[in-house]
Amino acid sequence: MSSPATGSLWGNVAGSTGAAFLGLAETVGGMGVLFGRILSRLFSFPPRLDYPELMRNLHKMAVKSLPIVVVTALFTGAIMVIQAAPIVKRVGAEGLLGWGAGFGTLREVAPLLTALMISGRVGANNTAELGTMVVTEQLDALRALAIDPIAFLIVPRFIAILTTLFVMTLYADALALFGAAYTGEGLLQVDSRTFYNGLTGGQLYFSDVAGGLVKSLVFGLVIALASCHFGLATKGGAPGVGRAVNATVVASAAGVFVLDYLVSFLLA
Amino acid sequence: MSAEEGHSPHEMGLSPPAPPGAVHDLGAAAIDLFLGARELYSVFVRTLYYVVRGKRDKGAVVQQMFLIGNKSLFFVTITMGFIGMILLYQSGLQAKRVVPDFSMLGATYLELLVRDLAASLGALMLATRVGAGIAAEIGSMVVTEQVDALRMCSADPIDFLLVPRFLASMVMTTVLIVWAGVVAFAAGAATALVAFDVPLRTFCSMQLIDWGDLSTGLAKCVAYGAAIPIVSGYCGLSTFGGSEGVGWATTRAVVNSSLAIIVLNAIISTASLMIFGAK
Questions:
Q1: Burial class of residue A15, CB neighbours in 10 A (0-12, 13-18, 19+)
Q2: Which end of chain A is less enclosed by CB atoms within 10 A, N or C?
Q3: Does B63 contact A at CB distance below 8 Å?
Q4: What is the pTM (predicted TM-score) of this model?
Q5: Cβ neighbourhood burial of B70 (10 Å; 0-12, 13-18, 19+)
Q6: Distance from CA of B231 to the nearest CA of A (A)
Q7: HSE-up of A94 (CA within 13 Å, CB side)?
Q8: How far, in Å, CA of A190 to CA of A194, rounded?
Q9: How many structural domains does chain A have?
């Protein structure tokens, strides 16, 4: 940004603030336009997308992420119990441990941590792949063959990321509760039966689980749009791919937290 | 992946069809994990060695501190502000269902922040931002053979590249996590005031904080600050295969440093529970 007032401090501050806001608006706008394009392909009849590409991406994104999600969820459950332990002991209500750990895990922690891990693994990788295709002009080649790159590359990835997040959050919910139950038994001598009773004892509603799953879909939307947008907007050769990956990771993390806040308020 | 595929016809030729099934995959994964862990350990030990014995570029550490610390400040502030609001809102809803009494909300929240959440969530954010940056930078140096050039000049890349990042990250992670805790607490206090009508004076209570909480939190800061540059530096240094490889290295750096943080969190939390006990 060539600001005319390069001498003065306030001119610089105003200039860089304005540039930051313009950049933000450009990113959000780009993601919105991309979302519109994806929807136009999805809701045409028949939906225009490449099924083999969808299957390939589902395998690469969901099946291959399973180990990370398993490890993350088990440890997260353990941490939730360890952190809830002093509070539960203070109140002297060990029957509440299951509820206490379950509430936080199902509503907040499992969707959030799954989204962070998936955004690191899948989102970053997706941007790197698309960015490499862009800088090696493979997208132009697709266009030259009259193949729509959005329908061929982006729509399958979009659906795959959304599905991945949803399914992985289901897994993470179950595994985190499993890890929490057995940490409680091993570390605090709270019988796992007590834990499951606390979980199903009536203080925890289906809406708590559903809220977490709705969140996971919203996170999937952000991660998919951010990674596809930054991948497609890559320019400047190989270093540009690195920059795009970095931008995706940062934008997905920030977007996930901001939307988490909004969704938490809307669902409450 | 491609190496595995390259092996299988060879194996098929040697013996009556040995199906490359689950055992094969599990073994390959275990060997990969073992080799990776050994390599990571070697990077860690060499970093520690050069911290003590290395010859350091003047200003390199300060420059890295600027890149790691100051450049992450905005990102950490925004994310931790939002996270503070969410956390307090969720725990307020949770408290409402059992005891409709918010007098201990602030004290409990502060205790959780000091002991765990500020450090772990802040470090997850830093792992994303800083880890990706370190891996992308070192990774592109590897694929453009600048690291080989360093070795030819008999400068160990670990001493020259990783040690300044290691020292800078140890300091700046601690500083940023303290700041993250402050931001999250302030955001929580504002949410409590608006959403649950908890007065600020009641909310800002330090009665539950003790030395155990503080030392657990600080131990986590130091452990995460050391883990992020080591893990992402290792991922960056093991980059191969051109510009696509840099993308892969960045991905692995973010995932592995986040995993390292979660595992370290479980270990340190368990240790602290055993040392200080559940009050």
A1: middle
A2: N
A3: no
A4: 0.82
A5: exposed
A6: 14
A7: 12
A8: 7
A9: 1
